[in-house]
Amino acid sequence: AQNVTVDEIMTAYKQACQKLNCKQIPKLLKQIQAFEDLAPRIDCLDLKGEKLDYKACEALEEIFKRVQFKIVDLEQTSLDEDGASALFDMIEYYESATHLNISFNRHIGTRGWQAAAHMMRKTNCLQHLDARNTPLLDHSAPFVARALRISSSLVVLHLENASLSGRPLMLLATALKMNMNLRELYLADNKLNGLQDSAQLGNLLKFNCYIQILDLRNNHILDSGLAYLCEGLKEQRKGLVTLVLWNNQLTHTGMAYLGMTLPHTQSLETLNLGHNPIGNEGVRNLKNGLIGNRSVLRLGLASTKLTCEGAVAVAEFIAESPRLLRLDLRENEIKTGGLMALSLALKVNHSLLRLDLDREPKKESVKSFIETQKALLGEIQNGCKRNFILAREQEEKEQKLQQSASMPEITATELPEEDPVEDGQNGDAASPPDEGEEAEEAPTASENGAAEDDGGDGTDSDSDTDEEADAGLETKDLSETQQRPDAATVVTVPHLPPSPEELRDRPPPLRIAEEPRCDAGAGNPATCQGNERRISVSSPGRGRKIFVVTRVESLPERVAGDADAAKPAEPQSPAPAAQPELPALRANGAVPDSAAGSTTAPAAPSTGRAAGACENATLDTPLPNGLKTDFARALPETSSDPDGKGGSCAAEHELSCSKDERELEELLLEASQDAGQEPL
């Protein structure tokens, strides 16, 4: 119902009680008055212990039709068949609860269970059903089994002490083989035997890999039944996390089966074997299986008739285990020798956070040993505290690492002088590309002979680099970089001038915003080896790459235009690198004014006729210093208006041809002067 008030609910309930001639429930009236926010589900409707006959249940409909709850607690409410079936129909129709407790109602009968099964099948919101001490007998079990087979929404099912042994368990286990929603199944105190019942449970474990908790405490599984369960456990590649076998008369024979099974289980984390007469021999049978297991984190061995000999076997397992978190050894006769073994094991174990032992020392024939036991108990406690502190520090460290991994950085470092030729050879040999994108980038950089500079824009060749540039740029010392374990790969780009064919065919190159150190005028690698600038790029999940910027050049407009027409411009991240050594390029307009890091759009290509004419004029111009005419292809041309839109073909042709000649002479003259000043 919409826009309901507490007064309306109270009035409706009282009128229903008068109409049905039944007593109002004071406990219920108090809870209704305490209701505050009625829009979402209210936490709990608690009717535990109240006697609910059919009329009282009918009166509750006035509440259920107006309000929904998370928990509806009907424990020990003396429900009969009529009342139970009426209540379950209401809860199913109004979707009143996500957690329903019908424990300790022994007389709901077949019709009650039939209505409960219908509710389980039809209600999408019911996730937790608690039916402890509510018998599910032979004639009622088929309804519940059918509901569980048709993938009900139940996640948790409590059926402790529900008289399941025999046919009811067979029907339930068969139905649950196909159920993919149930995660927790509690079957304690059902007198399950070691033959037929255990065989059904073993079959269930073979076929259902969704149940995570199976609680079988206080049954009669015996060693024969454990053999069936182990057959199913071997098939559990994922799924079962907790297995409780407390008080099932298991002995050392059953531990031999379990010891052979444990190395095959991959999901089991909690194993509780408490209150079984396992003895020292049983722990020895279990030890090798536990050492070979890679998943068990919690082990319960309380009251398993262990002495010092068994404690030594357990200590061997503790010393070998890198993951055990908790171990329960209470109610065992472990004296000085066993405590000494456990204390020594804890000195080499760094994972165990809790080791439960009896607080009071055991009686010894030598009185001084009692004091020794107290001291050893203190040492064991201190060892667990130490491991707890270490675990907390490790957790904090991992959180910091996760935060730093989410903010990768680009580091720019200057390397000492090296021979570029040797470095390039080593880098090419030592840097196989990690992914398809990097496989394209590496040959592109080596073909170009230089990393292209786009007026200070960040790298746009890889998806990670945009995030890196956004996260910020840091400058780090080389020694720090070399100490990093991932500083593995170094790539140096050789200084070979590109041929015209390569310029036309190559994909857009890797752009790295960094300050160039020299202009390799004649393509001589020796002229700028001392002033190289290297860029180290790191990203999560990849090795650190170091690129060397040896020359800066832009694509000819026609090539850049073709590339831009084929691929829309990607947003590029800003980088704070400045370029003080290129004043002539800035003056001529070859480098955009936004070199400080603003996002720029590439200049649009001019028409084919103008581009061809400019290219011919450039090639016909005599070049100073004996440079080849091919070098002119790599020289930048003036970009058109800042919007990235090209002007008219004729106007651009007239302006650019004469201006290009002057700019070309100035640029090449400066390049030759810089090359002459560099030490050879």
From TrEMBL:
Compositionally skewed regions (Low complexity) per UniProt: 568-613
Biased composition (Basic and acidic residues): 501-518, 557-567
GO molecular function: protein phosphatase inhibitor activity
Keyword Ribosomal protein set for record: no
Keyword tRNA processing: no
InterPro entries, A to Z: Leu-rich_rpt, LRR_dom_sf, PP1-Reg/Actin-Interact_Protein
Keywords of this entry: Leucine-rich repeat, Protein phosphatase inhibitor, Repeat
Compositionally biased residues, Acidic residues: 450-471
Annotated spans, Disordered: 395-539, 557-654
A Pfam family hit: LRR_6
Family per similarity comment: Belongs to the PPP1R37 family.
Name recorded for this polypeptide: Protein phosphatase 1 regulatory subunit 37
Species, as recorded: Nyctibius grandis
